[in-house]
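Purpose: get a first structural picture of the assembly so the mutagenesis plan has something to point at.
Setup: two entries, given in the order below. No constraints added.
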Amino acid sequence: MYPNETRIYHAILTGVGVLLIFMAISIITIIRYHRKKTAFERKRMKADINGLEKERKRIATDLHDDFGASLSAIKLRLQCLEPDNESNIVLAQQCQIYIDEAMNKLRHISFNIMPQILHRNGLTAALNELIDMLIPATGVKVNYSFEAEPNDIEKRVHIYRIVQEIMNNIIRHSKATIVILTIKRMKEKILLHIHDNGIGFDKKFLSKIKGEGLRNITARVELLNAKMYLETEMDKGVDYLIEIPEQ
Amino acid sequence: MNGYLINILLNHSIIVPAIIGVVRFKSVAHSYYPFIFLIWLGLINETLSLILIYTIRSNAVNSNIYVLIEYLIVLVQFYKWNSSFIRRYYFFACLGLLVWIADNVIINAINGNNSIFRIFYSFIIVFFSIDQINKLIIFERKSLIRNAIFLICGTFFIYYSCKAFVEVFNAFDLGLSNQFNRSVFMVLYFANVFSNIVYSIAILCIPTKQEFTMPY
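Result (structure tokens, whole complex):
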């Protein structure tokens, strides 16, 4: 190389070096701020969902304890009516039937908002009850087995909500007749697997889906530090697999 | 060790990601296959170039064909990552083909060291990489440092920027000595080694199945 060329070459190397340093700094700052943004979003999401669950629990308790108790009291008072008039007895019996219906609906609503059984008896019991409620109402056949139960109550609530949301999606949109639902433990992970034989959907149009269902599911999956795999094609059903770390 | 041998070794550093690609091929998500094919194709081209340099003293023809295939595979890879906007990829593929024909058939001969297409495709790949990185910054919910797409696109960004820069010296006949041109190309060789190291890490980070996420 001629001396002049050497100087140009050194200038080029310096220029390239400076540019590479700038690129490296850009990439490092991108990673740093992305990490901060993700942590912030996660914190916000956790606060939102926990707030929502707290509020649901409060409403469910109020409905069950206050409103339910009031209805029971009315029913008892009706039973105390003197049978002096035949028409009054019929009226009282009709009222009791309406009150029973109202109490059933109340139990149903309260269960949907926050199943007390989830806190009392655990996830398996709550899911059994959820399925028992869904099967007669929809005609969908659910083959299920639950072999794992997380210890953490927050985890139980998230898993329960995920299953509830997926089952709601299946009932509302999939036209499925059979659902397979399993929860099992594998290598320090809880595997939640749900498969339906419905109409499926094209993942390309996912961004156009307006419902909040899938968004809620992914938010909870994220809070569980879990991984979710969704396989679907038109007319081939939907397969959800969620890997939840136990720790 | 002479300079020529160092160049051969630096260029053959692609063997590392290629081997990792072979080992992990069956377990990685299908959407990353074009990238692994690209790595294998790169290794084949490097080996072919070495053989041709020793036999017919020129690797220009295979290199000119290789850059076109490389460009098309990278476009397929970007399409696999963003399955919408297929027309955009068709447009850039056709445009690339036209530029390649202009560069290697109309303006220059295919057996020459042609740079117009190389500069063009470097710009397009850098453009798509920046777009992909920005998309990840906005939509990705997990750490970027172990994200295979981020590692690959970040490396594309650095490597093809260097490539576009270096090819400019070749595109304009500046009347500089061969030694100067070789030294300038050394920048690309080192960028190549760096890229191959990151590609190896990226292949190790490719998920076995594509995780499902929704944008915020």
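The mean pLDDT of chain A is 86.
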